[in-house]
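Quarterly update from the structural biology core.
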Amino acid sequence: MIELRTPAEIEEMKPAGRFVASVLTELVEASAVGVNLLKLDSIAQGLIRAAGAESCYVDYHPSFGAMPFGKVLCTSVNDAALHGLPYDYRLADGDVLSLDFAASVGGWVCDSAVTIVVGTPREEDLRMIEVTEGALAAGIAAAQPGGRMGDVSAAIGSVCHAAGFSVNTDFGGHGVGHTMHGDPHVPNDGRPGRGIPLRAGLVFAIEPWLMQTTDRIFTDPDGWTLRSLDGSRAAHSEHTIAITDDGPIVLTAR
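Predicted structure, tokenized:
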């Protein structure tokens, strides 16, 4: 069921957005060559406790997950595209790292993701990250009251295709509110003028993600991490937005 939030409820969601943004900022600063993924998860756990927030991930167990996630942060490295389960791995020079984090503050959830290169970057990795960020910006700009969800999807897809990437639509954005995942689904490709109407009060996450040379994925033996089928690297960008009468606002702006 799609729910519309009142202006007062959107105000109540802003602390969750600021918290998620601040955690990702601290995690980006902490990510360096030699840092263990489990250390990053531990940092996020500490920040959650200090803020009196709640993790959206630790007990999360949807149909596509082999078991409850068990961590508070997704850390997807190199060919891991989404849902990277933190494990005992120290970041190496040149690793592509996607950090995806959602938390509940005051009963409201926000969700965001960012991709960085640890240490010495490769030009092709920086370009892929730039394309995901550009696609995210285009999707946000298209999320205007009076439009359709297909406008958002088409804006995302057009940026990705123009840069030479193929797009996987198995996973995409989603409604956000009292829980992390809800209606509507926000595909990363589509046709303008199609889909549900965009109305003030609609709150959802937009999250384009790309892989260098494929749009096909498989699930890692850990039961959670989704990897590119051909081993190529991946990038992921995400913000939670709210549509208002004056246009979209980014709740998780960093």
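The helical segments are 7-30, 37-51, 123-142, 149-162.
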